[in-house]
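User: Second chain of the day. Same drill as before.
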Amino acid sequence: MGAATGPFGFIMRRTAHSQPYFDSIEGPSVYPAFHVMAGLVRGCGKRLIEVRTSSPGRAAALAWREGDRVVLWLANLTAKPLALHVTGLGDVGRRLSLVDATSFEHATLAPDALEALARPFEGEALTLDAYAAARID
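Assistant: Same format as last time:
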């Protein structure tokens, strides 16, 4: 699934081949997938909750209970924006964190990007950009 560094790593390091954008960064940085893996690690040992998607092959979902709240991860597996309808989470205090093209720069430079990007999530409609991931808690 990945490694800390290297060709399939989550922490950026200089390589012999060109890495546009990353080669211009001074100081430490991570690939945005770092935040997804770090977030999923929090679910280790937790009891998973059954999640269904009406778009198998286009969307992936994983959820678990953390205390009195549910943590739901969603991923758009396609190269096009994907509209989703999210139900069953309750309506109180939900937060959404997105790892997508608009959060790319922040996600590469901030180790706490998911928390910094969190915003209130109301309603049930959500559109994920191409290959985007979202955490709703």
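The mean pLDDT is 88.

User: Great, on to the next one.
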